[in-house]
Amino acid sequence: MLSTIPIDLSEIDTKNVDKEILRASIIAELDAINLYEQMASLTKSEAIKANLLDVAREEKTHVGEFHALLLQIDSEQVDELAHGKREVEELAEK
Known about the structure:
By secondary structure, the chain is mainly alpha-helical. The protein has helices spanning about 15-40, 45-75, 75-94.
């Protein structure tokens, strides 16, 4: 993603803009996590590696913050998250 909102927010129904902003924010944080963890695996410097992994952990917190906000405003997301969890649990029982 690298600093580009993946959708045109002007084309989104105004009642859904905040949901899309939060989803784009989650995508950006996940992208940052992947980038920092990949760079950490490439560096030979323990100091740089430690710093990159620390920042990646902070980005994971940001994912949780944006996700919590999304769940506050999108009841369908809450329901589908629960549905997905049940599906995983059912598959694990097999």
